[in-house]
Amino acid sequence: MRPSTVTGAVLVATVLLLVAVRDGHCAQLCMDSTAFPRTINGSLSFCGYNGTSCCNATDDAAVQKQFAAMNISGTPCGDIVKNVLCARCNPYAGDLFTVTTSPRTVPLLCNTTGVSSRLSTKPAATMDYCTQVWDTCKDVSIPGSPFQAPKGGAAAPKLTDVWQSVSDFCGALGGSGKSPCLDGEGAAFNATRPALPLNGMCLERIGNGSYLNMAAHPDGSNRVFLSNQAGKVFLATVPAQGSGKKLQLDVANPFLDITDEVHYDNEFGLMGLAFHPDFATNGRFFVSYDCDKTQSASCAGRCACNSDVGCDPAKLIADNGAQPCQYQSVIAEYTANATSGTPATATSANPTEVRRIMTLGLPFTTHHGGQILFGPADGYMYFAMGDGGSVGDPWNFAQNKKSLLGKIVRIDVNTMPSGNTTAGWGNYGVPKDNPSAADPSFAPEVFALGFKNPWRCSFDSGKPSYMYCADVGQAVYEEVDLVMKGGNYGWRVFEGTQPYTPLSSPGGNTSAASIDAISPIMGYAHSSVNSNVGSASITGGYVYRSTVDPCLNGRYLYADLYAKSMWAGTESPEDSGVYDVAALTFSCSKSSPIPCDVAAGSALPSLGYIFSFGEDNARDVYLLTSKGVYRVVDPAECSYACPIKSSAPGASSPAPGASPSSAVAARAPALATLLAGVLLSLPMSLMSV
Ligand SMILES: *[C@@H]1O[C@H](CO)[C@@H](O)[C@H](O)[C@H]1NC(C)=O
Ligand SMILES: *[C@@H]1O[C@H](CO)[C@@H](O)[C@H](O)[C@H]1NC(C)=O
Ligand SMILES: *[C@@H]1O[C@H](CO)[C@@H](O)[C@H](O)[C@H]1NC(C)=O
Ligand SMILES: *[C@@H]1O[C@H](CO)[C@@H](O)[C@H](O)[C@H]1NC(C)=O
Ligand SMILES: *[C@@H]1O[C@H](CO)[C@@H](O)[C@H](O)[C@H]1NC(C)=O
Ligand SMILES: *[C@@H]1O[C@H](CO)[C@@H](O)[C@H](O)[C@H]1NC(C)=O
Ligand SMILES: *[C@@H]1O[C@H](CO)[C@@H](O)[C@H](O)[C@H]1NC(C)=O
Ligand SMILES: *[C@@H]1O[C@H](CO)[C@@H](O)[C@H](O)[C@H]1NC(C)=O
Ligand SMILES: *[C@@H]1O[C@H](CO)[C@@H](O)[C@H](O)[C@H]1NC(C)=O
Ligand SMILES: *[C@@H]1O[C@H](CO)[C@@H](O)[C@H](O)[C@H]1NC(C)=O
């Protein structure tokens, strides 16, 4: 098929779409982040939480027992200490105790007044909560006090035994602004985010090639790796913002070429690329691709349709005429071709596979995402895997905790087991705190479930505990999920927030009542986008953290594959997990090094298909489309007004120690033409209606 041109689809800028969010199922995090807050039946008898909480009745009883041992019940300080202890039941406990950085024994106490509490109906207190705690408790002996100095001390310390003054105390335990804090009522959020206008996104076209993945060079330099669907990885140098230069990339000399291993067709190809965080010293990198076992001897793995997950391969063939597991999804490790322990300077990879990390046989030919990325906080590898295809996940894989299909998988590629893992998918370690540790009904590799075809996940570089995954819908709704450990994102019980009815269900059903499905934080109905093709398919992006466009800063950017609609989601209040979504118009920079194509009858440039987004070491954001590589630039280049001036330092990322000598100007038309026929069919199968 040919891409249709835009016909009069003029986006209205900054239309505020307040996406329906089921309250209490958002960016909430518990202290033991093996679980997100659960819906509780009734309210906790001691701590009183109802709705969602990080505690169940057992935890509540334990808090009650701890409190009783302090023997301060019924006193003003007792009321405060109870509140502090019960904060672990707050659905925002993880953030209140800052578990993602260095966990605390006492929640962050609000030391300013005037912050807004989502859980409070009372007007803001006149005195800040931290000072109240000090004033009320400073002279009270508290046996087993949670307010302990790091080195311990008295058995029943007073606050004054540990801290000299209210400013000492609040310097250590108080805070506000970045994180939610405990205001005595609930989790208080800083709602006073500067309201910068969102007038549009200005893009420059710096390359002509078509890629599916971008990975910033782990040495922090101004270089990125780009991979195409056919199976080549390129090392490219990013020009400075405002330089008017193009991406420097040598099409004739790829960093790695595994086109012989890769099965390249429609939804198949080289799907993911991730560099070990220590790549600059260890040279390790990973590629996720699809292979065809009838074509390649190394394409041999276990079939995802097997008796462990109640799937009968024979029935699969009978029902669909399909050959199950002819195609496999592979994660393979490669190494930089470096001579003297300096992988950062390598301009090519050793083409021999170092190690097979995973091989997963695919039941059908669609929905197998394939992105890989390293968690910035934990160093584990995350693998985004779709439900394995066909319409409506007939075998109910996405809800099957034992299947890796329809999951975000999390594995450890630093700690390898001596043999195969028990499930036999490959060679990797399992992080000790994966959900299976708390709930053995999970396969060890599973991190989160209920996805149809996660098409592009990212960690917020400004807030690494936030992992966003866009999940391609079936026929009605495209969604963005904030992914938490053990979270169930609903497919195929739900599509978006609506119940979904499968066409066929040989693998059985999961009832809505039996799961605690987490609603999307953002998304859009197919009916709301004018794609000219009668459908839609989401491409997830990044939280924009560059200062080049201050008006986009802090906003999660995402797009529809058909490139007629983009959106920016803003978490508001900060840390609440609640997002305001606005349509985002876009335009081409007047200084674009390669002119953008003009779409007939539209004010928007014609970008082709938006396959993916990318982020470099300067936190600049890119769109990887069928027509090239586009970078977000100073909004003034498109005459978009932003009250804060763009800061686009000439060299925001340092040049590498040794700049690649073979770099030449991007020259990709031959490749683009060659790939066009196949690439253009990708979108059809991505949405796979
Ligand atoms: C909630 O608890 C009440 C009484 O304890 C019980 O009747 C009801 O069935 C429970 N609901 C659920 C959904 O468990
Ligand atoms: C839950 O809490 C809200 C607000 O605090 C209150 O209005 C509601 O009655 C409570 N529900 C139950 C079942 O306790
Ligand atoms: C309550 O939650 C804890 C973890 O917070 C868990 O270990 C325990 O099994 C749960 N108890 C019940 C009765 O669900
Ligand atoms: C608890 O405190 C009261 C007075 O505040 C005291 O009389 C009592 O002995 C204390 N009990 C324990 C177990 O420490
Ligand atoms: C509030 O807490 C923060 C973080 O600990 C500290 O930097 C700041 O000085 C405190 N402010 C006041 C008014 O105590
Ligand atoms: C809220 O955030 C803004 C901007 O980040 C900051 O200037 C302000 O001090 C914060 N307010 C509070 C009450 O912490
Ligand atoms: C590895 O690098 C060396 C020196 O740069 C080069 O001669 C050799 O051809 C490279 N090998 C591969 C497989 O790229
Ligand atoms: C891993 O399992 C596969 C298939 O079950 C088998 O062929 C292979 O020899 C095993 N490898 C090791 C190292 O045990
Ligand atoms: C699954 O649910 C669908 C729709 O409600 C129903 O038609 C089908 O019979 C169910 N399948 C099984 C195996 O229960
Ligand atoms: C990119 O494509 C445009 C339009 O097809 C062409 O004019 C231009 O020369 C190409 N640029 C490069 C660097 O290949």
Explain what this protein looks like in three dimensions.
- With 689 residues, the protein is α+β, with helices and mostly antiparallel strands.
- The protein folds into two domains: 21-188, no CATH class; 201-638, TolB, C-terminal domain (Neuraminidase), CATH 2.120.10.
- It has ten helices and 39 strands.
- A five-stranded antiparallel β-sheet has the order 1-33-32-31-30, with no helix packed on it. A five-stranded mixed β-sheet has the order 34-9-39-38-37, with no helix packed on it.
- β11 and β12 form a beta hairpin.
- It starts with 15 loop residues before the first strand and ends with a helix.
- Residues 1-26 and 657-689 have low confidence and may be disordered.
- The structure holds 2-acetamido-2-deoxy-beta-D-glucopyranose (10 copies).
- One 2-acetamido-2-deoxy-beta-D-glucopyranose (NAG) binds next to loops.
What share of residues are in beta strands?
Answer: 25-35%
Query: Which structural class do you get from the secondary structure elements?
Result: alpha+beta
Unreliable stretches (pLDDT < 50, length at least 5) are 1-26, 657-689
Number of strands: 39
Bound molecules: 2-acetamido-2-deoxy-beta-D-glucopyranose
Please give the alpha-carbon distance between the first and last residues. Answer: 15 Å
**Number of continuous helical runs:** 10
CATH architectural arrangement of the largest domain: 6 Propeller
Whole-number count of domains = 2
Membrane topology: Lipid-anchor
Domain Glucose/Sorbosone dehydrogenase: 213-565
Main location: membrane
Subcellular location: Cell membrane
